[in-house]
Here is the input.
Amino acid sequence: MLAERSLADGDALDGGDGERGSAVVDFVLVGVLVVVLLLGVLQVAVYVHVRNVVVASAQEGARYAANADVPAELGAARTVEVVGRATSPQTADGLSCASAQQTDVSGLTLVVVRCTGAVPSLFGALGDVLPIDVAGRAVAEAP
Here is the structure.
């Protein structure tokens, strides 16, 4: 009886309908694509956030070291401390910061804090593949 009904509806007994089950495959393929796209957008957002935090921290470190009674070398330590509080200690440990005094073309003495490192990837197997190289500057106070 089942075979007669199947033949009456125009379906063959041997599964002649080639579209059967394709919705599941389409869902999986589109779902994987959407998840990869979402993770990519999330990785860009994390990179931009961490970069902005490091830039602001380098500027804060330069302003701190530009005070009259503070040595310029303390700007790098202050930067790493601020990054560690704002993001995570692991992100701060991945940075290499240095600070020094420089004189620009107009004769002003600047304190420059330069940080390099990498942003952790959301995909653990990739490691730290997104580089950061930022600098913060402030005019040093005269004693």
